[in-house]
Amino acid sequence: MAKIFDSITEDLQEFIASQHIFFVGTAPLSSSGHVNLSPKGLDSFRILSPKRVAYLDLTGSGNETSAHLQENGRITFMFCSFGEKPSILRLYGSGSTILPGNSEWECLHLLFSQIPGTRQIIVADIERIQTSCGFGVPMYEYRGQRENLIKWADKKGEEGIQEYHQRKNLISIDGLPTPLNKS
Fold first, then answer.
1. What are phi and psi of 127, to 5 degrees?
2. Which pTM does this prediction carry?
3. Domains identified in the chain and CATH numbers
4. Could you tell me the maximum CA-CA distance found in the chain, to the nearest angstrom?
């Protein structure tokens, strides 16, 4: 059932490109800390090489992924087929947060559509690539991307987004600092 790959093959790249949603999992080192699992969409995932990926991270109510990566670097991505052919793909790796002003920002940012509320780019070097059957994943029909986050960010404006980051995105729910936290 499960199959391990040395790299993100062309077939796996096509599978990733055909998914409208992916999930990002991270966790702090503390056993009492909270595991974070976040769904992502809006065509925000890119394959940089057969063992390196990135996604455009938009402003959210927390910044757990970034805090966990700063603490320990561990990250897992999961893609599921909700169509006729069942499949699950997991990418396990080490990640980091790229902020505006970082030397990698300009080059990476050009790979994505310009979306209001962009907060950072998460980059990961992939160490393990694994597929599994997905036989237990239900079938769903894709109806489109939600525009709520984009409209919210447009309404807030650049200054409002920065203020929101200062209020909501500097510390994880477990008290870990994020890269946005300059102190």
1. -105, -25
2. 0.96
3. 3-135+145-168 (2.30.110.10)
4. 50
